[in-house]
Amino acid sequence: MIANLPRTITFICLTLSVSCPLYAQSVPPVFTSPEVRSDNTVIFRFFSKSAREVKLSTQIEKSPMAMTKDSLGVWSVVLGPAKPDIYPYHFIVDGTSVADPRNSATFPNEGFQSSLVEITGSSPLLHTLQDVPHGTVAYRYYRSPELGTRPVVVYTPPGYEQDTKAKFPVLYLLHGTTDTEETWTKVGRANIILDNLIAQGKAKPMIIVMPYGRAFPIVSKSSGSLRNWENLQEFKKDFLNDLIPFVEQNYRVKADKDNRAIAGFSGGGGETLYLGLNHPDLASWICGFAPGMLKEEFERNNAVAFADPAQTNKRLKLFWIGVGKDDFLFGVIQDYIELLKQKEIKHETFISDGGHTWMNCKLYLTTIAQKLFKP
Amino acid sequence: MIANLPRTITFICLTLSVSCPLYAQSVPPVFTSPEVRSDNTVIFRFFSKSAREVKLSTQIEKSPMAMTKDSLGVWSVVLGPAKPDIYPYHFIVDGTSVADPRNSATFPNEGFQSSLVEITGSSPLLHTLQDVPHGTVAYRYYRSPELGTRPVVVYTPPGYEQDTKAKFPVLYLLHGTTDTEETWTKVGRANIILDNLIAQGKAKPMIIVMPYGRAFPIVSKSSGSLRNWENLQEFKKDFLNDLIPFVEQNYRVKADKDNRAIAGFSGGGGETLYLGLNHPDLASWICGFAPGMLKEEFERNNAVAFADPAQTNKRLKLFWIGVGKDDFLFGVIQDYIELLKQKEIKHETFISDGGHTWMNCKLYLTTIAQKLFKP
Predict the structure, then answer these.
(1) Given a cut of 60, is residue A146 above it in pLDDT?
(2) Considering its fold, how many domains does chain B have in total?
(3) Is residue B361 classed exposed, middle or buried when 0-12, 13-18 and 19+ CB atoms within 10 A define those classes?
(4) Per-residue model confidence (pLDDT) at position A121
(5) CB within 8 Å: A96 and B101
(6) Are B288 and B321 contacting, i.e. CB atoms less than 8 angstroms apart?
(7) How far is CA A79 from the centre of its chain?
(8) Which residues in chain A are contacts of B133 at CB distance < 8 A?
(9) DSSP code of residue B258
(10) What is the DSSP string of A263-315?
(11) What is the CATH number of the domain that holds A217?
(12) Which of A86, A119, A152 is where one domain is finished?
């Protein structure tokens, strides 16, 4: 009944300032991790008396960094100074990946456990929580006849609740493969980025709808395989028949294609292009963030747009593709962009530094949020 | 830049059905964890080729269970049949605690990383997501002059957005030590429990306000110590001066003490009693769930209530204390209940099985939610 209670009790005893006779030997020392310092260096710490080797893996350094143990069993390493951003990281303890037990900022994902460190620097970034009016991030459920009760996270801009007449445009924002409906807010800071851009007058107030972007988890019990095309078909039905009606019935939205945008990262970028390019009435704004794609699927997944480029160009107000130079999808996305040129389909490209990361996701969202729903 | 990318890329490659030449050796086999079966047994799985020993720690079995490795490096163990509930669990990999990498249901906490498994059984429980009208769980920020921008999670009942005239009573619900503002929804399922109780006509529709229940994290950089009393003083200011005004300005609430309840678990239970018993105008409904307390602090922390028991009895509609027989706080809470009897302060007690767990938190919330705001 209380098998893993020592960890909890240890903390409660510490809080109550009572002694923990049963658990005295397991009481870890008091320490913070990560500790971000004003010079943009960070101390990471991990407690283990028994580990033989602990390393820190981040998306800042190319290789895991060795950590050293003090006499109390606290392993630590100093990183940086690092470029201000939010980075995923984890410890590697004798070969096993472990999220930071002292950090409640975690990376919502179905395939791994990671923690997040925010390195802010001397001036706030666009994803830094600032003293500006904040929108609301609502966790809702909607109903799909085929898939059951489905989670969705909905950002409404500052003032949405007060001005009960105003209607807003909607950005549908899809996460990457193995991410969840929480990843765009918790890792991508979509809500904070929009709060700040709206406060600065750089983005139009908009609603952002972040559904769970798969019909079923990537590894589902019933399948035993990944069924990517089948997932796309099932998710399309859910998106068009269940999600959009839920949003338009429950939020004050401008319900036409010129006031609908769709964007997504990685696997969700592939979904974005597939949904957006094949459904002319869906959205006039389509943005792929390092969109997942395969060359042999170009024709199939773009069939409607490719069949009538002139009509596609006429109806789309923005067709935007961003990718990092170090992204492992850079090559296939270049092939895709080349094909768009051949087909004479208008598009904007944004080639950034960096790889297939959520640091780039924040950059891409920041970029497109300033373009959406503007003449 | 891409130090921990292999885990991500592996999954993306799997999804895109492309080969991962660089990472071929690290591609884990396809498997699900946890796999809950219809007979309430559960298979837990963890992938590691290098670990020497992997165990499963749950709050079901008293001791960690040994797991065995197959030829692909997947460790597994079958647990149960278990009593239907939601249980925290983690793996112990060569002595290191690890949340389940294949499970995005995690336990929001500042002191450890755990995963959650829901064992539902043949009929839904009160915390099971069902096809009933759902309320909204909103992540908001409010401003404290002393503490800065503060997170709070607010549940509004089904229909709140539609009926723009109705006003609701409010339950302020505090988490335990090292928990966060998300723990009551993600582990305690407060929103789902209320959705179900409201659908069954067993609870009055209410708003539930779940703030981050500390002035500062339990282990804060600036302190190096735990400062429990100082935390209580700072949190009290924030609660009374910032949180309640934010709620009453931003939600349609009935803003009087008979329509305010306060409840909390463990450290948050101690805060609940301290706030509720010392502020006669705050709330007529006070509920402690295994409240954290020290015998030497009884007089100080209950000063106002103890000074005038008759007035306390007159003003309170419910003073409720729940605790499990196996809770490590059972003794001190019994001493406290004895003192309440001596002081002739009216109260209800609820002695359950089990220990200092979130299984009991759900039970206690389910119990008191059916009493609140009723004649």
Answers:
(1) yes
(2) 3
(3) buried
(4) 84
(5) no
(6) yes
(7) 24
(8) none
(9) G
(10) EEETHHHHHHHHHHHH-TTT-SEEEEES----GGGHHHHTHHHHH-HHHHHHH
(11) 3.40.50.1820
(12) A119
**Contact residues, B window 178-237, toward A, CB-based 8 Å cutoff:** 178, 180, 185, 191, 217-221, 224-226, 228
β-pairing, A207-211 vs A170-174, is parallel
Spell out the alpha helix ranges (H) of B141-243.
Answer: 183-186, 190-199, 228-238
Supply the range of the domain harboring residue B109: 31-119
Q: How far apart are CA B334 and CA B327, in angstroms?
A: 11
DSSP annotation of A237: H
Q: Return left, alpha or beta for A128; rule: phi > 0 is left, psi -120 to 50 is alpha, else beta.
A: beta
- Chain centroid offset of residue A117 CA: 15
CATH no. for residue A60? 2.60.40.10
Residue B128 lies in a domain: no
Q: Tens of pLDDT along A26-80?
A: 567 788 999 999 999 999 999 999 999 999 999 888 899 999 999 999 999 999 9
Any CB–CB contact under 8 A between B110 and chain A? yes
The verdict on whether omega for the bond into residue B280 sits within 30 degrees of 0, i.e. cis, is: no
Q: Which residues of chain B have a CB within 8 Å of the CB of A97?
A: 4, 7, 98, 101
C-alpha distance from residue B15 to each of A359, B112, B297, B351 (Å): 22, 31, 57, 50
Task: Give yes or no: residues B156 and B270 share one domain.
Answer: yes
Are residues A4 and B90, on separate chains, in Cβ contact within 8 Å?
yes
Q: Point out the residue among A94, A97, A356 whose CB comes nearest to the CB of B5.
A: A356
B216-230: per-residue pLDDT in tens?
776 554 444 456 788
CA angle, residues B182, B183, B184, in degrees to nearest 5: 95
A98/B96 touch (CB, cutoff 8 Å), yes or no: yes
Query: Are B168 and B108 within 8 A, CB to CB?
Result: no
Out of B60, B191, B267, closest to residue A12 by CB: B267
Which chain B residue is nearest to residue A36, measuring alpha carbons? B221
- Name which of B103, B185, B67 is nearest A99 in CA terms: B103
Q: What is the pLDDT of residue A226?
A: 53
- Within a domain: residue B216? yes
A312 touches chain B (CB under 8 A): no
Q: Measure CB to CB from residue B129 to each of A58, A100, A149 and give the nearest one.
A: A149
Contact A280, A315 (CB under 8 A): yes
Residues of A in contact with B32 (CB under 8 A): 217, 219-221
Query: Which amino acid would we find at residue B298?
Result: F
Helix or strand run (H / E) with residue B260: strand B260-265
- With beta carbons under 8 A apart, name residues in chain B contacting A180: 104
Instruction: Please give the pLDDT value at position B26.
Output: 52
